[in-house]
Design a protein that fits this description.
Blueprint lengths: L11 H16 L12 H5 L10 E5 L20 H11 L6 E3 L2 E4 L10 E3 L4 E5 L13 H13 L16 E6 L4 E6 L5 H7 L9 H4 L15 H15 L18 E7 L3 E6 L13 E5 L4 H9 L5 E4 L8 H4 L3 E6 L3 E2 L1 E4 L7 H4 L2 H9 L3 H8 L40 H10 L2 E2 L7 E2 L20 E7 L3 H15 L4 E7 L1 H4 L15 E3 L5 E2 L10 H4 L12 H12 L6 H11 L3 E2 L6 E6 L2 E2 L16 E2 L2
Parallel strand pairs: 1-10, 17-18, 17-19
Antiparallel strand pairs: 2-3, 4-5, 5-7, 6-7, 8-9, 9-10, 11-22, 12-22, 13-20, 14-19, 14-21, 15-16, 23-24
Helix pairs in contact: 4-7, 11-13, 12-14, 17-18
Amino acid sequence: MSHSWSKVSKPVGLLVAALLAISMLAAWSSPSSSSKGSSPAQVKTSAATRAKGGTVTVAYLPGTQPVYIFPLFPGTDDTCEEIFWFVEQFWRPLYWFGEGAALSYNPALSIANPPVYSNDRRTVTITLKDWKWSDGTAVTTRDVQFWMNLLIAEKDNYADYVPGYIPDNIASINYKNSTTFSITFKQAYNTTWLLENQLSLLFAIPQHAWDKTSANGPIGNYDLTTKGAVAVYKFLNAESSTLNTYATNPLWQVVDGPFRLSSYQANSEVTMAPNTHYSGPDKPSLSKVEFLNFTSDSAEYDELLSGMLDYGYVPFNDMPSARRVTSLGYSIVPWGQAGMNYAIYNYLNSTVGPLFQQLYIRQALQHLVDQAGMIKTALYGAGIPSYGPIPPYQPQPTSPSGQLLADSTERSNPYPYSVEDAIGLLESHGWSVHPDGVDTCSRPGTGANECGAGIPAGRQLSFTFEYATGVIQDEIESQLFASDASAAGVHITQKPVPVSVVNSISACTKGSPCTWQAGYYYLGGWQYGVPINYPVGSVIFGCGAYYVGGYCSHTLDSLMETAETSPDVSALYPYENFLNQNVPVLWLPLQPYQFSAIKNQLHGTTPQNMGYWVTPEFWSLSS
């Protein structure tokens, strides 16, 4: 059989270009010290000296322009550009996360004061700060109640709803007065998990402006009944689906965030202007921020080379020519991610599912992943190896008390790249190994030295691996994996498919055909941020979750439940160790989100937050 890459002859041109880009990465200058600042607090100290005015142009990745504005957003619009770069610039959640590069809880930018826990961690009391809506009306608990009533009535239409969690796990809510309310949960939780993965979902939305059922209808208290809440939701959802009225609809001009929407052109641009009544710690100094949509990476790169973008990116496949960008007065800054990166096995596939059910096969496949080679060749040295739910990215996540959320085990690789070790595992479990051919099961059965349940004699160790067309870094990593696997007789058929396909095929529902076999989904894995700041992957790895191809371990479910409910952060560690050792997915390097190109005249953008939160209210331009 042939491979697009072979073990002995990798594409020299691409590899040399990649290594050249790596050397350039080390030489590239970072943004000037005036544009740095490890946290918004540091930027805030110089707020009085920030230049006023100016327009900053920012590039969206192709096809990511937001297309939904109502904060109760559906799953189809659950993207960082939709939420953190758009909705939350207008309507801030009660609790803001993101401080400098870290995912940390940021009390200064939060609408509510830190939560107070009581009743053996079952009750949380929240007091709102003295914030105002852009029309001068106070933000009150009635606005929180409005949000909660719509969420309870339409939870199935909310992207971050997970059965059994908010609002299902709430026993009662007491709106004590205009500034204070309390929530009593049905059970006690770890308070860090509760803040980061549940209270992080709460919003206040303007009841005095939005509690209506038609454009010309009166404002009422419709949300106080389920029927009324459904009617209000349907109205707001319909208004949010009418993109051409976004900038003119008075509904969307009542905001409490640092910006308001000033213009919106579908498939083209989103322009935000400062909310002059913003109650946060610093008012925006810019006159406008324009987010521009492009049809392709090449279109964005052409605009970048013209100097018309202030905050763009160098596409992965253009990294070898990045000196063209730095010569124009830009700094290249890799935007690191916090999360986990992996390819998914389809455990429900009738043909290859029995293969992936075997732990030793998953261990062997992990031994065939050369993460160091992938980082060097595909990611220009900017990736991070991952062996579990919290790769060793920096800064490492901590609880509010400063305790590390990652066990030290997470920083070690239990299955390092080794073709020899992969072959040893397969041979000891009844496989006839044929390097550069196809391995076959020669000892069927369920014994310790046999192939395993559902694997008949003669079954070949072969499967199809899908990845997104046109995503150069994923393509290179897929080719490297297939080439290295071939050395152990594992036959991988590579299948590039459109991004839209590769993002949807893993979401198989009960009774639906799940014909795909294994896949590497665009940007891969799961990036931390709402609704997973505290890294318990119940919505990813839990039995019944669809994110990982039908994987189910009741042991893992129990470990995740303990991590959510135990008061001690160390309860996370057994869960992390289980994923580290049991490899339910194919762990791959954590990629940078993008290689940002930031004009040297633009300040306050770095460090870029690993959870994708952006705070343009701290940005400024100099001449």
